[in-house]
Amino acid sequence: MLKLSHRIGAAAVAFLTAAGLTACADNANNADNAQNANSATTAAQADANGASSKPRAADGAITVTDAAGRKLEFEEQPDRIVLAEGRAAYATALLQEHPLDNVVAYGQDLEKAAPSFRDKLFEVQPDAKDMPVIGAIQKGDVTVENLLAQDPDVVIMTLDQKKAVEESGLISDMDKAGITYAFIDFRQKPLENTTVSMTLLGDLLGQPERAKKYNEFYTAKVKDITDRASKIADKPDVLLWTAAGYTDCCAVAGDAHLGTLVTAAGGHNLGPEVLGTENTTITVEKLVELNPEKLIVTGGEWARDPNKTDAFRHVELGYQSSPELALESCDGPLQQPGLDLLDAPKNGNYFAVYHQFYDNPFNVFALEAFAKWIHPEEFKDLNPTQDFKDFHKEWMPFEYSGEFFIDPAHPEES
């Protein structure tokens, strides 16, 4: 069982590290810990809705399945969780009144990418301001020693981070150190793995019924939209420009995260045809050549980055924004020379959505907005802004604020 083997492994490796040895030293203790960690992990595939059998056994042990299809067993409920990607707190906020309960450290991306959301968390859980922040796994600045210092029962990583730690060798070091880990995914395959990930987190946080209720809400909402969209023959050409204005033109969503939602909402996502499956860039000239019928950009709160200049232009969206600010800033990405040739903004087919929807369980609201923007007549009954406000009242531990969607041609209907 993982929790016991983790405790033994963490103590052993911490002792060796303090003695001046490396965390991945080849010794009998670490080999035993690796065997314990590896033997407790076997391949298993969660079902499409992320459902699982009752996770808690009579003796208090729990069994969970992660987004990589790995089954893990714990002797008891984990109470020291590291969120290697801090934005996993979007999910934990759905599950518990104090979003960072049982979390002992989180990745620095929460502060860098979503500081206004982090401020919301601190409103309801002020003591979390003193919580340790680890680095960014994808940048290679997280070590076994960093993780052992938090004495974790389990480290939650994303499938994107899985690739990074496999390539860097960190995952091998974690195995040798006896560190237990599990994977979530809201980005690579959101419509498949959101419910799987919520089930996992609900089990680990002792909130399986709350997770089940959210998954029922999520699944029903997705089904309503995708069923309706599948009956529409017309599939307008759509390009999704991510983090527009944050970097030079143009990072485009391929067949991943928000790009998959464009397809599910009844659009023809041009991204995979020009990029393949990865999220890479195209030039201004290529964007003008494509001249998509619908252009969607993602916006955020990146003006808070002190390394950016006054010329930095993006759509201001998120918990710190407002309808007025979103509308005022929405033409920022279009100021690059040449983009005045695009037809979509002239025809009222230019839109902006909150960037962080690409990597959290709120992605269903991006799906809703896309459906309304791509097929306005067929989905005229939808109101993503009002629905997201109502969602906060029912599900979130803090009040709604900000702006997350903008249709500059019809701002009152976003």
Which characteristics define this entry?
about 425 residues, alpha/beta, 6-stranded mixed beta sheet, 14 strands
Q: Any low-confidence stretches, pLDDT <50, length ≥5?
A: 3-58
**Class from secondary-structure proportions:** alpha/beta
DSSP helix fraction: 25-40%
Number of helices: 16
Straight-line distance between termini: 49 Å
Report the average pLDDT across residues: 86
Major beta sheet summary: 6 strands, mixed
**Percent of residues in β-strands:** 5-15%
| Rg over CA atoms | 22 Å
What is the helix/strand order?
A: HHEEEEHEHHEHEHHEHHEEHEHHEHEHHE
Net shape: globular
Total beta strand runs: 14
Q: What does this molecule look like?
A:
With 414 residues, the protein is an alpha/beta fold. The protein contains 16 helices and 14 strands. The radius of gyration is 22 Å and the shape is globular. Mean pLDDT is 86; it is low at 3-58.
